[in-house]
Design brief:
With 278 residues, the chain is of the alpha/beta class. It folds into two domains: 13-128, Rhodanese-like domain (Oxidized Rhodanese, domain 1); 152-267, 3-Layer(aba) Sandwich (Oxidized Rhodanese, domain 1), CATH 3.40.250.10. It has helices at 16-22, 40-46, 57-60, 76-85, 106-114, 158-162, 175-179, 214-223, 242-251, 263-267; strands spanning 13-14, 27-30, 53-54, 93-97, 118-122, 168-171, 197-198, 232-235, 258-259.
Length: 278
Amino acid sequence: MDSRITQEDLPPFVDVAWLKAHQNSVVTADVRWYLDGASGRAAYDGGHLPGAVFVDLDVWLSGNSGPRGLNPLPDPEVFAHGMSSLGIGDNTTVVAYDDAGGVIAARLVWMLRALGHRAALLDGGISAWTGPLETTPVKPTPANLTASPWPDAGLAQLEDITAGAAGIIIDARNADRFDGSLQLPTDPQAGHIPGAVNVPCRGNLTPDGRLRPIAELRREFARVGVEDATAVISYCGSGVTACHNLLALEHAGLGQGRLYAGGWSEYGAEPHRRAELG
């Protein structure tokens, strides 16, 4: 891997030209996953970027569903083992993509960056790629990613949310789930965390799935009072797409916020916790 690429030099998003220039010195990761239960692995097998490994979100990027929500962060040892088996080690640079503008693959990128590793999202995802795709699964050479605890500074817990002094809480879900007009089967109840503001992560993207210009991102965050990400806690249904807002904040030069990984699936699971509608 190219040790000349540092985390400070690597922005949260890179384009196809950057990936093609560095393709021999990075691990490309396919992180397709679908809330409706469709198979990300089948999508990978049907065509993926040359040399890309498939990262199973349910296996390596999520713990077991339970009191901490639907997709809590996995145990550090599980994450390290999974990444190592995919050829991602302590000195690896990772570029991840999906077919949803990066709102799913953001989970892997945020996790790696939170631990101090080099990782970025491919702007535009698989649809931005020019050139043929591969259908043969990649057999990675195992590497060694050291297991490290998830950093407290990058995470918010349920207690932070319920204490009422959490700063600006942004909800990355679509507006209809935020306001309670739509309740998915995965939502324990309709609505959102009281006091939260809605910044749908898909609003970070243009209609063709590319990241909006930095000036537009900054205006959208300023609309809800965000000028410094250190005051921000980002959540979604279960801590996956919320990562895209955190990466967009960092890309826009607003700093690093915190992830509430339990999300609505944890907060809303108890009926006594008040949900806000509208």
